Amino acid sequence: MPMDKRDPKLRQAIAEAALALPGVFEEIKWGGWVYKVVGRGGTRKTSSKSGGAKMLCHVVDGKNHGWHGQFKLAPERAQAVIGKLKWVERHPWKTLGPSGWVVARPRDARQLKKFAELLAESRALLPSYEETAEAIETPPPGRSGDPLARKIDRVMREAVAEGWRFRGDDDADFDG
């Protein structure tokens, strides 16, 4: 049964597929949800040094395309998937598309299952430090010492969970 492209249950299903993978955590960032893999020592901070958290998937509600996930596959695998599945396409940004990033727009249970399989392939490309991730809980970067900033983060997370979405001039950048 097809899902409406704006259905919050669709975003939830995509989120569940990402969070079911080992060492994956969620952040609200860049007008959507970013799923990252914890780094060395369980860190959630992204750093230019090896061992920091790495982005797995970015899930956004593109105003014309509904919920979709952007993630990386091996370049040759990405080409094969794009040729086989109508709901998966090459990422439109010229720096991401050639390196294997794809945009996937699943709309039914069968496609969601395949989406989860492709996301697991993407996860396998990233380093695994999950054995230490459960032992160390790291606060979100940059907000641990400022109570006002923590409150703003909490209020924004709650608003987004209730369906609020920023609709700014740069929304077109996330339409894939």
Structural class: alpha+beta
The geometry reads as globular
Number of strands: 6
Q: Could you state the order of secondary-structure elements as H and E?
A: HEEEEHEEHHH
- Please give the alpha-carbon distance between the first and last residues: 24 Å
Strand content: 15-25%
Helix content: 25-40%
**Low-confidence residue ranges:** 130-138
Rg, please? 16 Å
Largest β sheet strand count, sense and barrel closure: 6 strands, antiparallel
How are the strands of the biggest sheet laid out side by side?
1-2-3-4-6-5
Number of helices, counting only DSSP H or I runs of 4 residues or more: 5
Mean pLDDT: 76
Walkthrough of the structure:
The chain is of the alpha+beta class and 176 residues long. It contains 5 helices and 6 strands; from the N terminus they run αββββαββααα. The chain has helices spanning 8-19, 75-84, 109-124, 130-133, 147-161; strands at 24-29, 32-37, 54-62, 66-72, 88-90, 101-104. The chain has a 6-stranded antiparallel β-sheet with strand order 1-2-3-4-6-5, covered by helices on one side. A hairpin with a 3-residue loop joins β3 and β4 (66-72). α1 runs parallel beside α3 (109-124). Residues 130-138 have low confidence and may be disordered.
